[in-house]
Design brief:
The chain is an alpha+beta fold. It has a domain at 84-168: SH3 type barrels (Roll), CATH 2.30.30. Helix content is 22%, strand content 31%. It has three helices and nine strands, in the order αααβββββββββ. A four-stranded antiparallel beta sheet has the order 4-5-6-7, with no helix packed on it. A three-stranded antiparallel beta sheet has the order 1-2-3, with no helix packed on it. Strands 8-9 form a two-stranded antiparallel sheet. The termini are far apart. Residues 159-171 have a biased composition (Basic and acidic residues). Residues 159-180 are annotated as: Disordered. This is Pilus assembly protein PilP. It comes from Neisseria shayeganii.
């Protein structure tokens, strides 16, 4: 009896191992045929004409001129202070920030600036923008900023800029839109 019980699993295992697996072979052959048919020839890439280099010295502006570099290292009349600690809003361009409101306490006016989904409080004298912009005035409808921009001669120039208050207004069709 024990011999019959032990011999039955052995016979089943040997029978399972001896099957040819024809369905697996058929699948492998079909997959191999499909793979051979779907190969596309490689297309030769077309080369575009490279951009032409224009030497800045030919145009009269040599950014590597030693005199210009020395002039930039010296502090000029309007040159920004290189040792000043930068404020958080100097990491954002003026185009990427929004003036969303203001508040007045006594004689001091503060404004709320939204940048990168955060709201910051600024006052007159704070720096904003990537061009060494300094807030010179805050009104209920705009912030006036004085930026320092370097010209092609290495001199620093004042450039005024404004941030208008963003309000929701309705046009004649009743649609709401944001305006500066």
């Amino acid at each position: 009896m024990k011999a019959n019980l032990l011999s039955f699993p052995i016979v089943c295992c040997l029978a399972a191992c001896s099957m040819p697996g024809s369905d697996l072979d058929d699948w492998m052959q079909e997959t191999q045929r499909q793979a051979e048919n779907s190969v596309r020839p490689v297309e030769v890439p077309t080369l575009s004409k490279p951009a032409q280099y224009i030497d800045p010295v030919i145009n009269g502006l040599n950014v590597f001129d030693p005199k210009r570099i020395r002039a930039n290292q010296q502090t000029g009349v309007n040159a920004p202070n290189p040792n000043r600690v930068k404020e958080i809003l100097e990491n954002f361009s003026l185009e990427s920030v929004r003036y969303v409101g203001s508040i007045k306490r006594g004689n001091q006016v503060s404004a709320f600036i939204e940048a990168n989904n955060h709201t910051y409080t600024v006052r007159i004298g704070n720096y904003i923008g990537q061009n060494h912009g300094r807030i010179t005035a805050i009104t209920p409808d705009k912030i006036i900023v004085n930026e320092l921009v370097e010209n092609s001669y290495g001199e620093w120039e004042n450039r005024p800029a404004e941030l208008g208050l963003n309000e929701k207004t309705e046009d004649s069709t009743g649609n709401q839109s944001k305006t500066n």
